[in-house]
Specification:
Blueprint lengths: L3 E4 L7 E4 L10 E4 L4 E6 L2 E7 L8 E2 L1 H7 L6 E7 L2 E13 L4 E9 L9 E3 L8 E5 L9 E5 L1 E2 L8 E7 L2 E7 L7 E3 H11 L2 E2 L4 E6 L2 E16 L2 E9 L10 E2 L23 E4 L9 E5 L4 E5 L1
Keywords: Signal
Length: 303
């Protein structure tokens, strides 16, 4: 997911040392499966959070949940963009308990729903575990491990965690989403893939759910030169062709069927662009697990 954020007031730290109240110790590793939901308490109120690899690091609550808890804005406010849609957000520090005693932690909330299956979302990097593993399926014959450097993206981790690929002298941020099958890229990333990976449109325009319940137009691209992550090959991606930049460099595989009106040019080509790929479940098909090791700072796949 490509989300543009602007912060209104400088922030303090996301979390603070533990309060006096202590609970049992947590295991080093959290293993998730199914909907990847955990139980927590915020200010003593039980809540359920959806752990999403591409989510902002701090817990981000649904609008109705924040209202129910009576959360008041603190020193940090922000605005995110999903295409032309504006999402207004606030934050403040509250007591959070993951099962080992309360700690003070910054909580985000917006005027939209960040999760449709829980009270909010959270990144694996925000959890108090050394390692977080998402179980995706059973390991098949010949499965091998892929280890990549783990990076935090954006101010205060607002753009989540992933790995950085060095491709054609450019740094491309690579993340995962378990909430959709498609792999999503913005228009500038799609244009870059067209130029350096021989990408061409091979699908028809359609509406795709991005985040916060917002759908945006996308179109499937196929790469002549796939991107490798170990043994995995990224061959296709859905381009958000009217979001965050210029997709005019992308040709259709069948040029006769291309419609130039589908390309929307936004912004200045000369400025640096954020090259980002958010790979979905289709890319992870056949993988047994996805692991975020916060201590070793590695992102691991078993496929």
């Amino acid at each position: 997911m490509r989300v543009a954020c602007s912060f209104i007031i400088p922030a303090l730290v996301l979390a603070s040392p533990a309060l006096a109240k202590a609970g049992p110790s947590l295991p080093d590793e959290l293993v998730l499966s199914g909907d990847n939901i955990i139980d927590v308490t915020i200010n003593g109120q039980p809540l359920r959070l959806e752990v999403r690899p591409e989510a902002a690091e701090a817990p981000t609550l649904n609008a109705d949940v924040a209202a129910k808890l009576g959360l008041k804005p603190g020193m940090l406010a922000f605005r995110s963009m999903v295409g032309p849609e504006k999402i207004n957000g606030n934050s403040s520090v509250h007591r959070v308990d993951y099962g080992a005693g309360e700690k003070k932690q910054r909580i985000f909330w917006t005027d939209r729903q960040s999760s449709t299956i829980a009270d909010g979302t959270i990144s694996p990097a925000s959890l108090p575990y050394k390692k977080v593993t998402f179980r995706l399926g059973e390991a098949g014959p010949g499965a091998s491990d892929i280890s990549l450097p783990l990076d935090n993206f954006g101010f205060l981790g607002r753009l989540g965690v992933g790995t950085t690929l060095n491709l054609a002298d450019e740094k491309v941020r690579f993340q995962f989403s378990l909430a959709r099958d498609e792999t999503l890229v913005s228009a500038p990333t799609g244009n870059w893939l067209a130029q350096y990976r021989g990408g061409k449109f091979t699908g028809q325009p359609r509406q795709t759910l991005i985040f916060y319940g917002i759908q945006r137009p996308t179109r499937e691209m196929t790469l002549a030169q796939p991107i490798a992550l170990g043994s995995r090959q990224l061959v296709t991606a859905d381009v958000r062709y009217s979001d965050y930049g210029d997709a005019s460099g992308i040709a259709a595989a069948d040029q006769a069927s291309a419609d130039s009106d589908e390309i929307v040019v936004v912004g200045d080509k000369k400025r640096d662009v954020d090259l980002r790929i958010v790979a979905g479940r289709a890319f992870l098909k056949g993988c047994a697990s996805l692991t975020y090791d916060m201590q070793k700072r590695t992102l691991g796949l078993r496929c």
